[in-house]
Amino acid sequence: MTEPASAAHSIADAPAERRPKISVHQATKLYEGTAAIEGVDFEVYPGEVHALVGENGAGKSTLCKSIAGAVRLSSGEIRLDGELCDFKSPADALRRGIVMVYQEDSLVPTMTVAQNVQLGREKFLSRFRTINISAQQLLQSMNFDVEPSAVVATLGTAKRQMVEIARAVYYQAQVIIFDEPTASLTPEETQHLFLLIEDLRRRGIAIVFISHALEEALAMADRITVLRDSARVITVPAKEMDRATLVKHMVGRTLPSVEEGRKRLAGQKAPRGRRVLRVQNVIQGTMVRNMSFSVFAGEVLGIAGLVGSGRSEIAQVICGARKRNLINGGMIYLEGKPVRYRVPAQAVHDGIAYVTEDRKVSGFFETMTVDDNIYLGWLCTPLGRRRLRFSRRHRNDVSASWVEKTRITAINRQSKIIELSGGNQQKVVVAKSLVQEPNLIILDEPTRGVDVGAVEEIHEIIRGLANEGKAVVVISSYLPEILKVSDRILVARGGQIVAEFNPEDATQEKIMYAAVH
After folding, report:
1. What's the CA gap between 157 and 361, in Å, rounded?
2. What is the rounded distance in angstroms from the CA atom of residue 253 to the CA atom of residue 371?
3. Mean per-residue pLDDT for 366-373?
4. pLDDT of amino acid 48
5. What confidence tier does 103 reach under pLDDT thresholds 50, 70, 90?
6. pLDDT tens for residues 284-298?
7. Is 275 within 8 Å of 254 (Cβ atoms)?
8. What stretches of 167-310 adopt beta strand conformation (E)?
9. H or E, element range at 511
10. Chain mean pLDDT for the chain
11. CA-based radius of gyration for the chain
């Protein structure tokens, strides 16, 4: 990377109290001739929370990965405390006090929580008891309810995210980059995180905060930088920005508000049809306790609730990923017939599709192409399993159709999934399920880690499925989403359905009260 003389002198000669902790100048990263970021300037000061927002594919993660040493720039420069840096790996950046908490966790699944927290900073001789006590003290200081001796592979998404955050704090970083840190957290856990960030800010730590939850960016940040089409659009103090203006800078157009979006989708609503699914007194271990509800054709049923309320577990029971109790486990009726699936393939055969909440772990094969991932969904259908010969032409035709329907954006359909933005990865997961032509679709956190523009597209897909006469279940922690897309709203708490609302009468406050009390 070259060093422009004027930029070098202006930063290096600045007084220490006014010098940026991190300064990026004219950063460009090319992939196969296509710019992920191009000519981006960005800086963050000690004790500042700087929010970085933009649509999926705008370049946010690429910029931050370059700061954290995971990506090397094609051109441009990065300075830490005015000194030019050329990180060859994340370990180089870590040694200089730069830590990135990734959106998709980077933990070692076979190690314990305590071992992951201290990974890279282990003492030459240490005992399990010692590192467990140290990790427990750290986790408790942040109000994170995670057992330090637990193996990471057994943890849910939210708790893995907590371990990532705890590890960054343990490293005593000077710069912490949070990539969608609240995507998997409950409102209470999110509040704890915000208090932690405030504490880090008071210590003089520079914080970069990437979030698709624009309300969080506006509330937490001192300044906001917007990226669009791989370039910086604007950097402005957060207090001078509101949500509508921020969205307009991000997508280049004005999007409807939640209330306007709800009214528009409601205007497209089709009449409710037959009962497709009936869940009656289902029990699964300690997570699902006597849960009952029904889903009808042509409706979107929203299920809200905190993490651990049983909402995701009941979805996994329905699709065969979990088994309900053998004795007194309740009944599940599909199209009026009792069903009990041993494996998800049986549910797929009967027309049930499940879109997982954790796309990286169980949603796709990250080293396979867009075409292959979508086609694998079709091969799981009864027709696909009967096919004796693989047809590249048929694969291309099937995949091209669903790439168009779900508006997946990639350099080409032969791109590996790991190379796509979070929003396009999510669309691939949705397409892989919808290619099975199911009658019942269960979407668990369908827009987690997805930008505002892609959220609108996914919501339109959801409404379109209901209008086609499909039965749709949407499980979401984001209450504006539940209020916007649902024809009925259920609230889960303690493994049971504790409340039902009509969307016209429901509010976020009512739903949250039912979820907590």
Report:
1. 10
2. 31
3. 87
4. 94
5. low
6. 988 899 999 999 999
7. no
8. 175-179, 206-210, 223-228, 231-237, 275-284, 288-296, 300-304
9. helix 508-516
10. 84
11. 24
Alpha-carbon span 29 to 75, nearest angstrom? 7
Q: How far, in Å, CA of 175 to CA of 22, rounded?
A: 8
Q: Which amino acid is at 312?
A: S
DSSP sequence for 100-131: EE-SS----TTSBHHHHHTTTS--SS--HHHH
Distance in angstroms (rounded) separating the CA atoms of residues 256 and 233: 21
Residue 264 has a CB neighbour count (10 Å cut-off) of 14
- C-alpha span between 225 and 249 (Å, rounded): 10
3-state secondary structure (DSSP) of residue 109: coil
CA–CA separation, 454 and 411 (whole Å) = 17
Q: What's the token pair of residue 13?
A: 């000669």
CA 136, CA 117: separation in Å to the nearest integer? 10
Element (DSSP H or E) covering residue 410: none
DSSP-derived secondary structure letter, 38: E
Is the pLDDT assigned to residue 39 strictly greater than 90?
yes
Q: How many residues does the chain have?
A: 517
Q: What does the DSSP 8-state code read for residue 333?
A: E
For the segment 468-512, what is each residue's pLDDT rounded down to a tens digit? Answer: 999 999 998 888 889 989 999 999 999 999 999 998 888 888 998
Helices 258-267 and 452-467 sit at what angle, rounded to 10 degrees?
20
Nearest one of 15, 24, 66 to 43, comparing CA atoms: 24
DSSP character at residue 336: T
Classify the phi-psi angles of 470: left when phi > 0, otherwise alpha if psi is within -120 to 50, otherwise beta.
beta
- Looking at residues 298-303, what average pLDDT do you find? 94
Buried b vs exposed e over 227-248: b needs ≥16 C-beta within 10 Å? bbebbbbeeeebeebeeeebbe
- pLDDT tens track for 111-156: 999 998 888 777 766 677 888 888 888 888 877 888 999 998 888 7
Higher pLDDT pick, 15 / 517: 517
Name the architecture of domain 255-351+438-517: 3-Layer(aba) Sandwich (3.40)
Q: Region of 330 please: left (phi>0), alpha (psi -120 to 50) or beta.
A: left
Residue 259: alpha-carbon gap to chain centroid: 23
- 3-class SS at 237? strand
- Which residues contact residue 198 at a Cβ distance below 8 angstroms, ignoring those fewer than 6 apart? none
Kindly tell me the sign of the dihedral angle through the C-alpha atoms of 256, 259, 260, 266. Answer: positive
Per the model's pLDDT, the better-predicted residue between 468 and 105 turns out to be 468
Put residue 258 in one of left, alpha, beta given phi > 0 → left and psi -120 to 50 → alpha.
Answer: alpha
The structural domains of the chain, with segments of one domain joined by +, span 255-351+438-517, 364-437
Helices 392-406 and 370-379, packing angle to 10 deg: 100
